[in-house]
Specification:
heterodimer; A: 577 residues; mainly alpha; two-stranded antiparallel sheet; B: 213 residues; alpha/beta; five-stranded parallel sheet; four-stranded antiparallel sheet; globular
Chain lengths: 577, 213
């Protein structure tokens, strides 16, 4: 009786279980079997530890581990600190009218391009910028450096993974910044800062002692997502990380792709270790945050007022502006290269320009573009529909299952992609999904859905339920309320969630590569495979295109609702006149 | 020992003064009341005195506390306590830690600090509340804790922005008594923004009525 009444809830739960949780668990399961010697495709059916012995004998394993940890933790910590500083700066009351404080209203337009651009596009742009023959070297040569030829320095793909960390910081900073700004709306920031300052605390220590401890719990999940991503990225590591040995995630992917199929076993063991490394890392990260909180509380009890952090403020504001400028320049240099005909070192700009590559693109639409757009439209639409359906079902039939589903919807972001994608590929093959567009789209959905949900859930919850009650009291059916009240009022957040979904799908590298078995090329896979080649112009085109499609989606999402409002105002004016 | 405002007004970004210039002298232990129609800028006046104005506003006139002009000092250096309508106890700290946040760092010894906080809790009839979560306190209890927090910071003046507005009528009376007794013992000038004639009667201090320009 109860079941029949709330059947949509159980149907939705089943869809999410089978569509999201099952693939991740099955993928992890297959990887685990392979790591312990069971891989029927190779005719291996018995448990063994040889994969692990093999893994530990592989050269460069400890270096890979070190690279992974340094770039992952460093980038997450720095991006978080800069994002928090950015929030404090935006909320601040600077008495001097400096140039920077006049830029405050333009922060969001600066952040959106970097936010929209896929990781690979930012990485390629940054490489084009920082490489010994990159734009920065060209801008300062030969008048300052006297270089006639690119210097023999390892400015990208350095042995410590610092350029990789820089790339990650530049890309993740806008995400953490915007997420924090949204979360801060739940805290009465300005009053609490006034109070704290009235008791003699400096602005900086007020943020540290009062706002940060309240903010962190609200952004914990996105921060952990960034940590896991930074520790397990393959696409950025391929472009900015050192090559030999590479980070653990990239090494794992290379072993998976080794010509010798026997390498699949140690590769699976490596993938599983990466998964365990995430668990340990998340634990370590949370413990460090806990330690910071304990120290903060002890400092709070001591009543020490703190000084204005003048030096720290200077260092942080310089770092923050440098990261934003590097991010925007990275995208700009992609655009320049895509329009270049001849550009020899050390000219600051190309000697001759050409739009031949773009023309070529428009005349014969490459498969990569078509695939990317199809995958992005499909997976983002599915994700938006699923999110709406799930949230509406919660509204109508009660939400006690939300906390449960919450964790498994975000699970694909908290597990390294490589730890379950290979296993998922085997799983898909077993049920006859042979690496076609459908399978790849499903894999994209695993990563698109959590981001869409993350961006939608707060606005959905924040919608004043009294609008619905008013409509119901006027005799509107619950479907009528759903279409004419909820969806109409939430048009802007829905479109934004869709655009975020587009951006996430376009940026997917491993799911396209592994589930598509290398046969489905997308903008991202093309850009990354071309990146190691010689033709920077072609890479520029693909890299920029990768960034342009999501930016177009964001533009649409921001413009459409405004056009609709304008039209309403027009109609109103016409009626008046 | 006094707070002096002379021809003080706040100017908006469009160069319009919010209210007619204010002249006021509040000596120690005295409670001055600020009244006036809604939206005239009473809270803004307090923000100007405390140094909490947003950068769109400018202040003209003088604010002098104990002979020292304040206009150029940041809020953190003015030593002027504030209480808002909402008690705003920091939700991530226990009641006791909220008071510890206020207690001046001049008291360095942790045991001594704890003792002073327990004393303050006792004065506010909050014995045994040190480890309580502020959200579990009643409105009146929260207001008393917020006042003790402000006083432990040893402010040289206190600004009250309708601190009783959200309390019910009976509580308002006891809270007013409590606040005025506690604050007067500190021998500091106090400025109270209010709509209530009863507050004015109890304050027995100078009155400023803000007038729109």
């Amino acid at each position: 009786m109860r079941f029949s009444k709330s059947w949509p809830k159980w149907v939705m739960l089943a869809i999410l279980l089978i569509g999201i949780l099952l693939p991740v668990l099955a993928g992890l399961g297959e990887t685990t079997w392979a790591a312990f010697g069971i891989l029927p495709a190779l005719g291996k059916y018995s448990f063994s530890l040889t994969a692990w012995q093999h893994l530990f004998q592989l050269p460069g394993l400890t270096t890979s581990l070190r690279l992974t940890l340094v770039s992952g933790f460093l980038s997450t910590a720095v991006a978080l600190i800069l994002a928090l500083f950015g929030c404090a700066w935006l909320h601040g009351r600077s008495t001097k009218h400096s140039v920077l404080s006049k830029l405050k209203p333009f922060t969001a337009p600066f952040l959106v391009p970097i936010l929209a651009a896929p990781h690979a596009a930012v990485a390629i742009g940054l490489a084009f910028l920082l490489a010994p023959s990159g734009w920065l070297a060209r801008l300062f040569s030969p008048w300052l450096t006297a270089w006639q030829l690119p210097p023999d320095w390892a400015t990208v793909q350095d042995l410590w993974g610092l350029s990789l960390a820089l790339g990650l910081i530049i890309k993740e900073l806008p995400f953490l910044w915007l997420i924090s700004l949204v979360a801060l709306k739940q805290i009465n920031v300005s009053r609490q800062l006034s109070l704290s300052q009235s008791m003699g605390y400096s602005y900086a220590s007020s943020w540290y002692k009062i706002i940060f401890p309240q903010l962190y719990p609200l952004i914990r999940l996105p921060v952990l997502v960034v940590l896991v991503y930074s520790l397990s990225t393959v696409d950025m590591a391929q472009i900015l990380g050192p090559n030999n040995p590479p980070t653990l995630a990239l090494a794992t992917m290379r072993w998976f792709n080794d010509a010798n199929v026997a390498m699949l076993l140690p590769a699976s063991a490596a993938a599983l270790s990466l998964g365990m490394l995430m668990v340990v890392s998340v634990f370590l990260w949370e413990m460090s945050i806990k330690l910071i909180m304990v120290i903060t509380k002890a400092l709070t009890r001591s009543g020490s007022r703190g000084r204005p952090w003048k030096l720290a403020t200077k260092v942080l504001s310089t770092a923050l502006s440098a990261c934003l400028i590097l991010g925007l320049l990275s995208l700009a240099v992609l655009a320049i290269w895509s329009l270049t005909w001849r550009w020899s070192f050390p000219d600051a700009l190309p000697a001759s320009w050409s739009y031949a590559y773009w023309q070529n693109l428009v005349t014969n639409w490459p498969l990569a573009l078509l695939h990317s757009i199809t995958l992005a439209l499909g997976s983002s639409a599915l994700a938006v529909v699923l999110s709406i359906a799930w949230l509406e079902v919660q509204d109508r039939y009660g939400g006690h299952l939300y906390r449960l589903t919450f964790w498994f919807i975000y699970l694909p972001l908290l597990v390294p992609q490589i730890a379950f994608l290979y296993g998922l590929k085997i799983g898909f093959l077993r049920i006859g999904l042979n690496g076609g567009m459908g399978a790849v789209m499903w894999a994209h959905l695993l990563f698109v859905l959590p981001y869409v949900m993350l961006s939608l859930v707060d606005s959905w919850r924040a919608l004043d339920k009294r609008y619905v009650q008013v409509a119901e009291s006027l005799g509107t059916s619950s479907w009528g309320c759903f279409w004419r009240i909820k969806l109409s009022l939430l048009l802007q957040p829905l479109l934004l969630a869709w655009a975020i979904g587009m951006a996430v799908s376009i940026s997917q590298y491993l799911p396209t590569l592994m589930i598509g078995a290398g046969k489905i090329e997308s903008l991202t896979t093309e850009a990354i495979s071309l990146a190691s080649g010689a033709d920077r112009r072609l890479v520029g085109v693909y890299g920029l295109l990768q960034a342009l499609v999501p930016m177009l989606a964001y533009g649409l999402a921001l413009l459409l609702p405004r056009l609709i409002t304008l039209k309403m105002r027009d109609n109103h004016m016409r009626e008046l006149s | 020992m006094s707070l002096e405002l002379s021809s003080l007004t706040v100017i908006t970004g469009q160069n319009i003064p919010l209210f007619k210039p204010v002249n006021l002298v509040v000596s120690k232990g005295e409670v001055a009341c600020v009244m006036g129609p809604s939206g005239v800028g009473k809270s803004t006046l307090l923000n100007a005195i405390g140094g909490h104005l947003s950068p769109h506003f400018n202040v003209t006139g003088d604010i002098v506390l104990n002979g020292q002009p304040l206009a150029c000092l940041p809020a953190a250096e003015r030593q002027i306590g504030v209480l808002f309508q909402d008690p705003l106890l920091f939700p991530h700290l226990s009641v006791g830690d909220n008071l510890a946040f206020g207690l001046s760092p001049k008291v360095g010894d942790l045991k001594q600090r704890r003792l002073l906080i327990e004393q303050a809790l006792e004065q506010a009839q909050l014995c045994g509340f040190y480890h309580r979560n502020p959200a579990t306190l009643s409105g009146g209890q929260q207001s008393r804790a917020a006042l003790m927090r402000a006083l432990l910071a040893e402010p040289k003046a206190l600004l009250l922005d309708e601190p009783f507005a959200k309390l019910d009528l009976e509580l308002r009376h006891t809270m007013r008594e409590f606040l005025f007794t506690q604050a007067r013992q500190q021998l500091i000038p106090i400025v109270l923004v209010t709509h209530e004639p009863a507050d004015l009667a109890a304050a027995k201090g100078p009155l400023v009525v803000l007038q729109p320009t």
